[in-house]
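Final report, closing paragraph on structural work. Over the funding period we assembled a curated collection of sequence-structure pairs, and we close with a single example.
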Amino acid sequence: MKWEGFYCEAEPLFKPGLQDVVALETSISFLDTESERILIKGFDLIELSQEIGYVEMIHLLLEGSLPDRVQTENISQRLNKECDIAEEVWTILSQLPQTTHPMDAQRTALSVLAGFDADLEDRSVQTNVKRAYQLLAQLPDLTANSYHLLQGRARIVPDSSLSYTANFLYLLTGHIPSKLEERIFDLSLLLYSEHELPNSTFTARVIASTLSDMYGALTGAVSSLKGQLHGGANEAVMKLLLEVDSPVGFVELLQEKLKNKEKIMGFGHRVYAKKMDPRALIMKRALVDLSEHRGDDRFLQMCEAGEALMEKEKGLYPNLDYYAAPVYYMLGIPIALYTPIFFCSRTAGLTAHIIEQHDHNRLFRPRVHYTGTAYSSL
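Its predicted structure, as stored:
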């Protein structure tokens, strides 16, 4: 490269937002858009969603293999045993203003947990895996009950007789879920569990590359996920659906927003540019099942009408958030907790990425495309 003054004749490749830039190597997951597959440790996520549950997905992401029946039971017991949270954590969370966003409470809780980790400076794979299981065990309680505290309500005590997923849903709603509700919620956790390198995962890996601890990396990921262009989309979708009460009304609302050139959440994806997110189709089927079970298909009809309009007018297709939003609403989950739940489920994938980063580390230090004025002497 030949430099002339401040500029280089052969400028480095610059892609705004790092679009299509390969930033790292990983053995965890890959979005194979040509074959329309989401690969997790070599398995198709959509095929996995028909065969396994979220607990098995945790094992696949952290251990690298699908568990057998005994291993699955051991994981469930482990998650149940490692869910205890120091009372001091609850004391701190109870002091947060009631105006605190649930994701800020979640972020605070993660930071506080670091102080109770006696092995905080140990970045070994073995300790990080142990830490990941403990965080996955604690997050449902922390997420649900920090929200209840913000609402001025008492904490709900976890029910150890329930499965991991059923207990999570119970903590969120205060009601023991039916088998169908448990299955559908578990499916959503599995579909959200890992998705290659979105902003939050990249954030976690960048922080981990400094050899910061797992809590610090996850805290950064929460902050990333809080943004409406990333994890906040499911909340925005549900608020849109609640503005009207019919498919016709929903279409008219979307048409008005399109006319005003407003961004409509739940459609389009940086990776699935011209195809439907395959996870959205699975969640759409779950909405069909839940609607039939409840005898109420209003949200299903509205979503289908919106999907048809956006495909016709903009060539855009739903992403996972679009159909997850009404599913969560029908499960009785408060809208403010949709994105925190996204983070809880994604923690399985995030911790796998942090472990991989620590184990095969190289500090991220990119360069910039300078658009300022050239150097001039004083």
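The first helix runs from residue 45 to 51. The chain has two domains: 38-231+338-359, 233-330. We thank the funder for supporting this effort.
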